[in-house]
Amino acid sequence: MAKLHAVALAMWLWIGQARGYVVKDGNCTLSTKGLPVVENFEVQNFTGKWYELERYEQNNERDLECVTTSYRSSEPVGMLEIQTRGFDPSNGTYVTLTSIGVFEELSNSTGSVAKLTINAGKALPAAAEYRVVATDYSNYTIVYACQPFLGPDQSVEGYWLLSRTPHLTDQPEVLSRVNYLRSTFFVAGHIRRTNHSEELCGNEPDLPAIPQSIILPPPITAPSEEDTTPLNAE
Question: E strands of 89-207, at which residues?
Answer without folding.
Answer: 93-103, 115-119, 128-135, 140-148, 154-163, 191-193
